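We treat protein structure as text, and this decision shapes the records that our systems exchange. Below, we set out a record of this kind in full and without editing:

***
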Amino acid sequence: MALVLCLILFGWLVKYFAYTEKEKNFYRHLETINRLELLCLDGSFFEYADGSEYTSRDHPNSFDLDLFGHASLFQYINRTTSKPAADMLADWLKAPAPFDEISSRQQAVIELKPKIEWRQKMITLGYDHPTGEKDPKDLLTWVFGRNYFLRSRYLKIITYSLSALGLLSTVLVILGAPAALLVPVLGINFLYYFSQAKNITRLQNQVGKTAEMLETYASTIEMIEGEAFNSPELTDLQSVFTADIPVSVRIKRLSKLVSRLDVRLNVMVAIPLNLFFFWDIHCCLALEKWKSRHAPEISLWFSAMAKFEVLSGFANMAFNNPGWVLPEVVPGYFTFRAENAGHPLIPAGRRISNTLEISQPGKTVLITGSNMSGKSTFLRTCGVNAILALAGAPVCADTFTISHVQVFSSMRISDSLEDNTSSFYAELKRLAAIIQTSEHNQKVFLLLDEILRGTNSNDRYTGSVALIKQLIGYGTVSVLATHDLKLADLAEELPGKIDNYHFDVKIDGEELYFDYKLTPGICTSMNASILMKKMGIRM
């Protein structure tokens, strides 16, 4: 009795120890999350995944606007812990949301913003299971693929019969029958198992080692199932998980089935289990049975879970930046009104905000200014905030209104040894894509920085004038930063179609002072000669 009591006490202590370890890890992860958020508030957000795998030079704007990679918008927003959510965040940044969905996302952000503990607990689940970031692509390939075990009508009968024969032979040997009796019986069992080995291995390769990932997904979905929501977007997403048996329970079941199949990776255990009980085959049968019941729904489950993660990231950004606003996205073409807009990735203490309004199609805003005065940063400020607005996220501005458009840019052009392409030809290809897009009456907002910089000054001016006139003819709106002051004279030739703005520089002897404020009119002061003198070039 003393031994039994000690064993019971030991079992309770083991269980309590596991609970304590889980609680300890939870609070450690929570401490990490808040430490990283405090760093983020100070402008250091570089410990989050940066989404560099989503970088594409051919995308209309992502390379120019630093949407992905180190110190990118993706890295600033990203609080996802699953691959489907990271993929969805990248997709939302790459393309505008449907017009009707933007306001729904904004309402969801408003509701999730004060749910700090709930949002952070969701992140801790991912921290508890780092393999939750594993790509479920192979798992989904299996879900939508063909069955290899359920289609065999006699598979269960054969395996149960051979198992019974193997166990019976073992009992007879124990009772005194010759041990040689086991040789033909186990040989038959081995040959039958071997006949199914190819299909078992195929299934294992697709679902193996996903148990921890599925456990994380199940825990995340369980959190969603247990929370009360009011906004239409969140209630619709939550309804995806409504069923007689909770979806979290169903995914936990799949996780357990995968864990059982992964037992085959332990050879010492797998050999007796399969020789006598055909363990792997029964696991595969159970997995395919689960698949046959839930295949049409699992993609919806993963997608709804991913949306909750991405919207939580938007809400986190809104909470961290209480001065930011949810923008107004309007259907007509064209409206752009940004009051005191700043670049979201520049810390508030160093951020300079500016105001710009464009209220008609076929308008070109020319921005002149000296080197380092802030022209390119302002273009990116307009572009990044437009991307956030069209994704349904808050923006860094006092007020922000934009038409439902596609943002297109030509700012950061480089050559390619791999494609045998010069930077000038690469820019021409980008401008050709811009012209083609504008020509087909697509609603676009163009951000152009020092176009045709790879040719001589005469050709650059002639080509720039031709491009501006062509874009105005299409009714396209563009903001163009340039050093070429002659382009500003187009305002007289095309009245009402060209707006001139500039960034000024104050010069005191050989010292330069920038205020980074956008001002109407044409720039009259340049600083290149002073900078060249500082670099040792004799003027």
